[in-house]
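Replying to the earlier thread about multi-chain prediction with a worked example.

Input:
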Amino acid sequence: MSQKQEEENPAEETGEEKQDTQEKEGILPERAEEAKLKAKYPSLGQKPGGSDFLMKRLQKGQKYFDSGDYNMAKAKMKNKQLPSAGPDKSLVTGDHIPTPQDLPQRKSSLVTSKLAG
Amino acid sequence: MAGAGGGGCPAGGNDFQWCFSQVKGAIDEDVAEADIISTVEFNYSGDLLATGDKGGRVVIFQREQENKSRPHSRGEYNVYSTFQSHEPEFDYLKSLEIEEKINKIRWLPQQNAAHFLLSTNDKTIKLWKISERDKRAEGYNLKDEDGRLRDPFRITALRVPILKPMDLMVEASPRRIFANAHTYHINSISVNSDHETYLSADDLRINLWHLEITDRSFNIVDIKPANMEELTEVITAAEFHPHQCNVFVYSSSKGTIRLCDMRSSALCDRHSKFFEEPEDPSSRSFFSEIISSISDVKFSHSGRYMMSRDYLSVKVWDLNMESRPLETHQVHEYLRSKLCSLYENDCIFDKFECCWNGSDSAIMTGSYNNFFRMFDRDTRRDVTLEASRESSKPRASLKPRKVCTGGKRKKDEISVDSLDFNKKILHTAWHPADSVIAVAATNNLYIFQGKIN
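Result:
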């Protein structure tokens, strides 16, 4: 029966068919999970595999720093402390101007791997 | 040898059991990011086992030869060499942080006494030579045994230095550095069967290199759209065919595999074969594309088949049939009803690898909770095993594990909600000939050996 429903009305959900859809959601746990996600994040786009998601993947490792902003901020706040990164040191975008203190140490592990111990 | 060609799994019907052999790495709960193992690979003979980690280090283990005086150490893997392969870098021009994490290690077939391997991080591939030195010269004329230079005017006689045996020293040296060829992050390297070339693949492009030439590479696949707004899929893995040096495959984030023939054109943007399982459009959900993304693709040793790993399953394909896979093996189907939380905690993007045994009769892949799965293709049986310190008594056989999906949880079963999603087994390797497997569980490397009871 559910097979027939899918053929007739793959995407639509009307009041009459709501019961069937609920049955379908029981049969298709993925759809139930999707409903849960949409309930939590209503603004979530329709196409998850679309370019936003992939662009985020391609931009891994990108750090943003504008030397102009940095120097302006330093000049404006001559006597005050520059705002530090706070607990989440990986976030150096937006209003926060990164300072040398914020950047994580870029030293390699000089320690031998524990697998070789 | 029974179970020859790599053995199957305990479900194979005979009294074949996987037993704990060794575990490497620290026991402490606090795992340093750098210690997380990111790749595991046996060499062609299986005598060497290499691991790479997030800290950019490579550790190579060597299998002990049979030794009558220490029978229990037969077949044990001990440290052979360790070195820092990659270091963290910063690309100032692009403001890009480059991780030192070793994404892949691939061995070259052995041609002389030395061993060679390729290791890569996101941007740079390096060819390493690992050689043994067991002799040193003594009796130099111009310097002391300590290396201090002697005053030439004090030398009254000449002598010929003699070679004396010394304790075995294993040296690793970088022989080639293949850099600046990838704008995006390298996910795969694969050595060609011609033993002269290899490919490297990033999210959007695949390059062909000659092992001797570092200042040039050929671009053979480019899927970057003219307008990045139109980007819909990325390359997730690539591999050369084990015997046909003109053939390679690459998989995508949309669940497709393309087979390309380098003889057809210089730029292989047009595939020769296109493998995709048709999807039932009515069962499509928000998660469909994400979970169909292929995280690994591996040719069988025979070259007749290939295997693809997506989030919930492993599929075996016949190279002669593009329309649908030959076999589909469910790895952890019970996660389908947990996709919402797996999306929220990013686990849905975990990239699991898969591997074949030597005879292509069995396949293995990892899961969560330090579980890994084995599928015997002949008997169609499968088993879930666990890499844990608890089942780490010497030569203790591993007990099959079971995840309870329904209501009533039987004794010894574990419920889906109790699974530890931080304990992921992403990397496993199978000895090319024997029943030996290596399983990376975060910062620990487990080695299991198969035995017939």
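The CA atoms of residues 51 and 57 of chain A lie 10 Å apart.

Feel free to reuse this layout for your own posts.
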